[in-house]
Amino acid sequence: MTKYLLEVNNLRVNYYTLEGIVKAVRGVSFRLRRGESLCLVGESGSGKSTIGLTIIRALPQNARVEGNIIIDGVDILRISEEEMSRDIRGKKVSMIFQDPAATFNPLFTIGELMCDVMRHHLGIKDKVELRKRAIEMLKVVGLPDPERVFNSYPHELSGGMLQRAAIAIALSTNPELLIADEPTTMLDVTLQAQILDLLRKLKSKFNLSLIFITHNLGVAAEICDRILVMYAGVPFEEGPTEVILTRPLHPYTKRLLECVPRAHRRISRLRYIPGMLPDMKNPPPGCPFHPRCDECMDVCKKSLPLMVEVEPNHRVACHKFMRR
Known about the structure:
With 324 residues, the protein is of the alpha/beta class. 33% of the residues lie in helices and 24% in strands. Helix 5 packs across helix 7 (159-171).
């Protein structure tokens, strides 16, 4: 058994469109241990969801991928779609998305969808056993009256119940890695807290490895062991959650933290980062954050900094630290 469940090495993803090539992910590398959780954090459009979709090989046809994604010793970018569907997607890795309503086919009940997934990935044929396992999984994710949920159509459930059902389906095949792509974005604050608490408990119960995709560092603080900060497809900072939140080094990470509202901080107006993400069809030279950075130096406009380790397990890509 390998030390790391997941290794992503120099991942690059481009989307070929009629308007040009969108450079969505540019040289991302990270590792994930078994039972560990990692948050991918950054503004919308920073490449986080593309990384998740690449790991389960669910990108659109206009995407082109370079690099390596090694899951349990297998480079999934070098195997056939048949092998991916049979051995990896669903069995090793599952994914849940931000809009639970879009996850389900409205023509089928929750139970029918769950049984179909388990029949395909686990090879279970007996209808009684499938129903029993499905209802048990609905209980695990805290759904009241799981028998009713099993027989319900998606439109008959609330958003929070649908997201729990989506988690139940994702975990019904006993995956080792769960990718959660902003699963609380479409829910109100109370339901967000419930889903985060549920994921934390399920991670411990099933010894799951977790990749949690979010734009909110406050959410990241609640659930993840480590944080990888992304911007314009580029990794900026990576380290243990407590270190990133208390001793951020990259100017972008600092600005993201300043944008998180805090009850104890009395300010006249909310803080924000001026400017917008660059056009990923024509990203600026050098560090992509330099047009918005108040610590920008001349070198930042010319070359992209490399990730360097500034302390054990804490890496940052900023010219301020490359000059040391």
